[in-house]
Every structure is written in C-alpha cells, then in structure tokens.
Amino acid sequence: MFQSSTISSSQFELDRLARQSVDLGHNIVLIHACVDMLDTVMNNQVTLVHDAQTAAQHISSANTSVRTAAEHVGTTVTDTLETVGHSATCIRAMLDKSQTVAEWVQTLDTTMAAITRTLGDMSSRANAIKDIAQQVNMLSINARIEAARSGEAGRGFAVVAQEIDRLSHQTAETTQGIALSIDELTGSISKLQKDSGVVAKDASQTLKDSSAIEDALGKIIEKVAQSEASVTEILTKAADVDAANSSFMPVFAKVKDGISETAAQLHDARAQLDTVVDISESMVQKTVELGGASDDAVMIELVQATAADMAAALEQAVARGDINMAQLMDFTYQPIPGTNPQQHLAPFTDLTDHLFPAFQEAALQTNPKITFCAAVDRNGYLPTHNRKFSKPQTRDVDWNSANARNRRIFNDRVGLGAGQNTRPFLLQIYRRDMGGGEYKMMKDISAPIMVNGTHWGGLRLAYEYQGERN
Known about the structure:
Blueprint: H1 2-150, H2 155-289, H3 297-320, H4 325-328, E1 334-335, E2 344-345, H5 349-365, E3 370-377, E4 381-382, H6 397-403, E5 408-409, H7 413-420, E6 426-435, E7 438-451, E8 454-464
Antiparallel strand pairs: 1-2, 3-8, 4-5, 6-7, 7-8
Helix pairs in contact: 1-2, 3-5
C-alpha cells in the first residue's frame, strides 16, 4: 500500500513537473521574443545613430567646403569690388573728358556756321572791290583818252592815268585771288561743318550714354557690395554650423557607444536565452519521455503515427519508381520568380504535393486546436502545406506571409529543429509570425520522417498555446 501510494505521489509530481516545464518554456519563449525584438530594435538604433553620425560628419565636411569656397569667393568679391571701384573712377574721369569734348564739338558746329557767314561777307566785299577796280580801270581809260586829246598839256595827267590803270589791274587780280581763296576756304569750312554735325550728333548720344554708364556702374558696385555682404553672411552661418557640429558630435559618439554596448549586451542575452530555451525544451522532453502527463500526449501520438505513415508512403513511392532515393534526398531549391516571400521548388515537390495532403489534412481534422500539420525536410523547406495555407500569392506581401506558406524555407530555430530532429519527438514553444505584425504563441510537436533508414526531415504539428493546468 505504501509502495502504491509512493508511486502515485511520484507520478503526480512528475506530471506536475511536466506541466511546469512546459509553462517555464512558454515564459522563456515570451522573454526570448521580447529580447529578440529589443535586440532587433537596438541593432536598428545602432544603424540609425551610425547613419546620423555619418550624416553629421558629411555635413561638417560639406560645411568646411562651403566655408573654404565662401572665403575664396569673399576674397574674389573684395578684389572685384576694389577693381570695379578703380575702374569706375577711371571711367568717370573718361566720361568727364568725353563730356567736355562732346560739349566742345557741339559748340564747334555753331562756330563753323559763324565763320561761314563771315566768309560770305568777305566774298561780298571782295566782289565790291573788284567792281570798284573795274570802274577805276574805266576811269583810267577815259583819262588817258582825254590826256591824249590835250596834247602836251595833258602829258602829266596821262602818267597819272597810267598808274591808276596799273593799280586797278593789280586790285582786280588781288581781289580775284582773294575770291578764289574765300571759295576754297568756304568749301573746306562747309565740309568741316558737315562732319562736325555728325560728330556733334555722336557727341550728343555720348552725353546720353554717359549718364546710362554712370547708372550701370553704380548698380554694378551695388551688386558687388551685396555679394560681399552675402558671402559674409554665409561665413557667419557656416561658423554657426561648425559650432553646432562641434557640440553634438561628441554627444553622438557617446550615444552610439551607449547604444552599441546595450545592443551587444542584448545580443549576448539573446544568445544565452537560446541556450535556456534549449534547456527548457530538454526538460519538457525528458519529463514527457519519463511518463509525465501533459496536454500534449495525444498530439505526440498523433504526430508520431502520421510521420510513420508518411515515411511508409515515401518508401512505397521509391519502390514503385515514382522517385529514386537520390532525387528524394536532393536538397537543392529552385527559386520561383516573382514570389514574395520567396518560394522554391525541389526535385521532390511534385511527389510531396501528390502524397502528403491526404495525411496532413486528416491529422488537421482530428482536433480543432491544431493550426497546421505539415512536413519539412532537413533544411526547414516546406514543400506541401495544408490547403488553407497554400493559396496563390498576390501583390500583398503580408497576406502572402499568412496564406501562401507552402514551398517556403523556414530555417528559423523551430523549423530547423523540427527538420533536423531524429529523436522520437520534439516539443518546441515559439511565437509564430502570422503576417502583418501579428504573432501567436504556439506549441510545435514534431516527429522524424525516416525513409529506408535515411533521415529526410520531420512532420510538424502546431497548435495555439494558452498555458498548462497546474
């Protein structure tokens, strides 16, 4: 009686240990999921801080280039301003001289007109003198005639008349020369007056242009001065940017160091939790193997029986010649173009599509708690899923993640664990990605699929986990 009571007590404790081991695994997986998420977030933060630090360094480098360029431009603008100022002074002096010349040319036209009038008067007087000389010449002729008539008495008067005649001829010749000179001078003055008129017109335009040039020079000097002021402002702002960079670059470095250290610690913690998860799963495995009762006993029997049936079906296919062992054990995967998430084909995919659904769908129907039942090869490749998870892909990646899960490689910890396990069964607890950021806590029980003594993979049976009864 005592022995029976002791055995009952031991079995009770073993059952309780089995349930507590499962609960422990559940809690560890939750913690692992949180740490995993934090690890991802921290790694992203490290990347962001690094990118920000790099951007700040680029800004600093670019700002240095801006300052260098601005200083060069500033020097150039200052030199240009001095050159423009000197040029403006020279141009203004030249404009003053041009204005004086233009004004003189304009008065020259008036002077030429006056000279022309004076020459006209001189020509008129020369003609008058010529007329008088002709009259004197007529008088000298008449005087000589009368002197000849007077005989000896008129001889002295004849001499006078002869001198008057000679004077009249000289006067006529002289006035003729004067008239010719006046005509030549009048022609030259007329030509000079015509040319001076053109020059006067150009001089008038020069006087107008000089005013426009003066305005343009003023605007040039003003613009150059504004450019100098802008360069000074750029240099001031660049100095402000340098000061800001100098102040927050050390902060960036400290933040990056702090986040990097935290990320490293989280990564180490995640790695340690992986070990803890393995230990907790081993505890569950051992307690169940020792006979500890849990809610998973029925599921374990189901997955083992179904895996054995599927292994037998594969052996029969090999025996029939539907496939040979080399093809069945050929774990090369051909990506299916245009799929997201990426799907693949393997040499045995057509065969598993033909054989596996009957077994997998039957197991799925045995218990409403079961979420899926599907086989994976050694690498976590899942060729043929349950029909509800084998929908054709769409352009919605989140929808595909939840509904088109066949032909995908699940090489995460749980997927590889199920595919590579050779023990009678493996019980794992994990968070299943349902797509769209949704996760569910799941139990995954798997059993190996052995074909003619060779390990092909394993059958996974998963169901949502709500916690064990104590």
